[in-house]
Task: structure prediction
Amino acid sequence: MENRKVRIALTKGRIEDKAVELLEKIGYDVSELRNKGRRLILNIPNEGIEVVLAKAADVITYVEHGVCDLGIVGKDTIMEHGGKFYEIADLGFGKCEFALAVKKGADFYEGYGVKTVATKYPEVTRMFFEERGIDVDIVKIEGSVELAPLVGLADGIVDIVETGTTLRENGLEVFDHVAPISARLIVNTVSVKLKQERILEIVGLIKESLK
Ligand code: PRP
Result:
């Protein structure tokens, strides 16, 4: 019976509402999730499903370690973090992109000097420039990365762009597109085998609802 219990890790914040809507759409009672207060573990009654709310990178960690069977997390975190799990569906919400942005009118690729790029996503940035054979210095920033080119720390930033408002309001613009982002469904590699029936049922319902 224990084997039939399934735990889903769900990313708090930006994509949380859409993820809860998705669970509701497939017929689950999400009342605990809608009235969670400060609780971090919520039940989906009558389904033997527990939902855990966590920060994006931690969703991956919980799924990798097998304490959560499934996870809903942005492709941005998957690209930066990597890890051992199966990415089984593009959920189609939380759409945005990774972009290289610069001060309005600047040409990032002009000149021969090594450029500096500020980002919260050094791994994504490294891969992007490595694929193009461009040598850059990468500076890790914890937040409000848009500041870096404005105060002269960097020639450009690699960051998430959704509406483009943050860039626009800070005199920056997209210079190049790095990668599209959306929410993904991930699954633990062992859960797929040990709880195959239950997992396939849930994944089937989710995939059906995406059509
Ligand atoms: C992201 C990103 C930008 C902003 C872009 O930050 O870092 O600052 O969203 O959105 P826009 O194109 O719609 O203006 P987020 O809100 O995820 O918070 P963060 O600063 O903690 O990364």
User: Anything to note?
Assistant: The pocket of PRP is lined by residues 143-144, 159-166 (CB under 6 Å). The radius of gyration is 20 Å.
